[in-house]
Specification:
33% of the residues lie in helices and 27% in strands. It is of the alpha+beta class. It has a 6-stranded antiparallel sheet. A two-stranded antiparallel sheet has the order 7-8. The model is unreliable at 196-209 (pLDDT under 50).
Length: 209
């Protein structure tokens, strides 16, 4: 399936367009400075202060970084995923490439011990779908063992899994039609249809089967 994706990191809080994520990151930094630690204790985070963000938050157990596990997942994230992944290992929630990207992000947060802010985008049918994501490492009386995630879709109208899945289905249909055309072409003329590299050229190049 022709789905393009990329991840960009915000290098400063000022560069992050989502004010809610900035506010949570600033609170993490304030608590860190107040405790004189490199990473705050989870209990020191005034989470009630961010109650309006609860639907967009998730808490992850990273004691076993090879197999991170959701502990709490907000209602908005559940709707976007299309199911409730609470207590599930992330490798059982996402396809392999997505899981590896997320786990790599967690590993950076644990080793670099700082907030990480990303924008992740996907291109489907010429439409950009994605989200801004904040990743905050936390302690519980020892090494970093928890990750607090805050995630907001770039397109505020994207709220349900059925919305982005509809784009996937249309993309799959287009891919299937392209494969069907290539197969029928090969069967009929004894050559396969190969996309021309020159965007200014027209027609179809024939290569021997």
């Amino acid at each position: 399936m022709a789905v393009w994706s990329w991840t960009a990191e915000y290098m400063s809080l000022d560069g992050m367009p989502n004010g809610k994520l900035r506010s949570l990151a600033e609170h993490w930094l304030d608590v860190t400075r107040g405790e004189g630690l490199d990473v705050p204790e989870a209990a020191a985070i005034d989470i009630e202060r961010f109650e309006p963000m609860f639907p967009h938050l998730a808490l992850v157990d990273v004691e076993d970084l090879a197999h991170p596990r959701y502990l709490v997942v907000g209602s908005a994230l559940v709707r976007l995923l299309g199911r409730d992944p609470t207590y599930m290992q992330l490798e059982r929630v996402y396809r392999r490439d997505v899981f590896e990207e997320i786990r790599g992000c967690f590993a950076r947060a644990v080793t670099e011990i700082r907030p990480l802010m990303y924008r992740r985008e996907f291109q489907l049918l010429g439409k950009s779908l994605g989200y801004d994501r904040l990743v905050l490492p936390l302690r519980q009386g020892g090494p970093v063992s928890r990750i607090l995630i805050a995630l907001y879709p770039i397109d505020g109208s994207l709220r349900m899994a059925s919305q982005w899945m509809a784009f996937l289905r249309v993309q799959q249909d287009e891919d299937d039609r392209e494969r069907s055309f290539a197969g029928r072409w090969a069967a009929d003329v004894g050559a396969r249809a190969v996309p021309i590299r020159d965007p200014g050229a027209r027609g179809t190049r024939k290569d021997p089967v």
